[in-house]
Amino acid sequence: MNSLADKTVLNNGVEMPWVGLGVYKVTEGDEVKSAVKSALKIGYRSIDTASFYGNEEGVGQAIAESGIPREEIFVTSKVWNDEQGYDETLEAFERSRQRLGLNVLDLYLIHWPVAHTYKETWRALERLYTEGKVRAIGVSNFLKHHLEELLDEAQIIPAVNQIEYHPWLTQPELHRYCHDKGIQLEAWSPLARGKKFDDPILSELAEKYDKTPAQILLRWDLQQGVVTIPKSVTESRIKENANLFDFQLSEEDMVLLNTCNCELRFGKNPEIFG
Question: Which of 237, 240, 220, 218 is nearest to 229 (CA)?
């Protein structure tokens, strides 16, 4: 991983950038359009949104107005909880596609593992994939047992599992399981919502490498083999979050960061999210 242009290869051969821009809680309209345009100008080529975020239209407009060829931009969206089910998911996908103004999405995810529903939702995603409406399909917030239950009936193995992931929540068993199954792990909330920037270990490493706490965390993601999608609406911060390729954390410092793990969640627990 030597530049913002570097990509991982998913289990179906589709290439996905290692670093992208997340737009959770970014307001629809000028704010999200400005953030996406800034990211694309800086060199990002992956944008992560969702129907629940309420900003798909602005994301699509920013992409259309960027002047960058569509095939160079990797776009992810997700089906929300009250949209799940077979027919409901097909309809939700069409709404997302219309709002984004795109014929084909690069990645479509089940946002949360809604009990008694996500298997039918996955069946709809498989149809969207086989019909060529999306280049890859995956899940978000799935724990190991969710994946095991899904794979009992699935025809297609998820390409991605997007989860809350940072040094205070490393979920090693889930990480190993996804690696063994060829499922690419992707981190949401990779910066722990900024609430651990004053952690002594993180502060020590930021000083040692002359980097910001955010850059240390994002570089840790990459060296763990995890795709990362930090969110920001400020161009200077978006640029800072991409400045990850002129340093590398030592093996000892990777281990040191891993000792921070304490199963601390800043988002909802997939077991009780509903």
Answer: 218
